[in-house]
Amino acid sequence: MAHVVNTDLVDDLKTLGARQIEACFNCGNCTAVCPLSKDDVAFPRRIIRYVQTGMKDRLCGSIEPWLCYYCGQCSETCPRNAKPGELMMAARRYLIGAYDWTGIGRRLYLDSRVELGAVLGLAAIVVVLFVLFAGPMTTELTAEGGVKLNTFAPARVIELLDWGMGGLLAVLLLSNVWRMHRWIMRREPGLKVPLGAYIRGLATLFTHFFTQKQWLGCKGAGERITATKWFKHFCIFAGYVTMFVLIVVFLRWFQTDAVHPIWHPQRWVGYIATGALLYGVGSALVARWQKRHESHKHSHPSDWIFLVLLLLTTVSGILVHLFRINGLAYATYVTYVIHMAVLVPMLVVEVPFSKWAHLAYRPIALYLQRVQQQARETQARTANLQPQPVQS
Ligand code: SF4
Ligand code: SF4
Q1: Tens digit of pLDDT for each residue in 275-312?
Q2: CB within 8 A of 138, min separation 6: which ones?
Q3: CB of 43 within 8 A of CB of 67?
Q4: Is any ligand 1 atom within 6 A of the Cβ of residue 30?
Q5: pLDDT, tens digit, for every residue of 39-54?
Q6: CATH of domain 9-99
Q7: Dihedrals φ, ψ of 389, to 5°?
Q8: 3-class DSSP state for residue 187?
Q9: To which H or E segment does residue 270 belong?
Q10: Cα separation of the two ends of the chain
Q11: Structural domain boundaries in the chain
């Protein structure tokens, strides 16, 4: 297959964080020390070569960037200080932009002012919609002393809007996943993938999506640090997914005017999920601020924007709850608008176009790796069953 050299590739990757990659002289030390690199998926040197030689198609068809969990060991031992771990991170940002057919993801990543502008623009639209269409604010309280939030923002209306937004995000994300799949499968044009391989591979997809366990193999920083990092990341993932399901699927159960007793599942599910989010997001922000570990030393603006949006969403959600159950009517209404003005841009900008998308692409890359492995095994078995030429 002929490859067209993309002369912008190095510059794009440098803009996305791989600033020192031209120092690499391809010694291969990084691939040798990487705890996750295997014979059939060797990285990061291979990815560095693709970038240095402008092989965009090869890069877009690679699953390797998604297999790196940024332990930093390759960067710490690189004799040229070329920061290969940061190159892998920049490659993931590049791929999120490349998979996205709208071109929005690429623009957001290459110019952080565009990402910030998109977030602020969407936030302004949400505020205007509330000013124009929200229901009446009332200081009249419920029998338990809670604020009547549903007169201002009826759960059934917000639920419909959630479904519309969720459907749009799903279409965008799934169409990008389809492009990712096509690129990866194109790298082995002779490989026939039976439907059964896609079905059998689903166990890999769900296991890695829900456990993120691949992370635990990335022991470059030591087992204890790896386990702690995995746990913090898992807290963000679990808290986020729980809140997303509550808001999109169970909003009428979750957004009530009634103040339930403390033992009610509505309260403790919400408390556990927001507690996990606060701990995970807070730890990630502090780690990036302190820059102690290699993986936290080189934050891209998109890393900060994502974490700050998540933190603001969590904190404003907690405040809405506290104000509501304590009967502080106007504080509840105003904080609810702020909460939605952060939540909507966080979902619309981050899920299909930016940092959040890695939650989908990582397990899908592992899934496609498994599918390809099974297809190769099937192909090899079929070849062995073919009649062999008779030896004379
Ligand atoms: S990034 Fe560093 S360790 Fe890896 S091949 Fe280049 S020079 Fe060698
Ligand atoms: S950061 Fe860690 S997992 Fe990623 S390529 Fe380097 S050594 Fe491998």
Answers
A1: 999 999 999 999 999 998 888 888 999 999 999 999 99
A2: 148, 151, 152, 329
A3: yes
A4: yes
A5: 778 899 999 999 999 9
A6: 1.10.1060.10
A7: -60, 140
A8: coil
A9: helix 265-290
A10: 38
A11: 9-99, 105-376
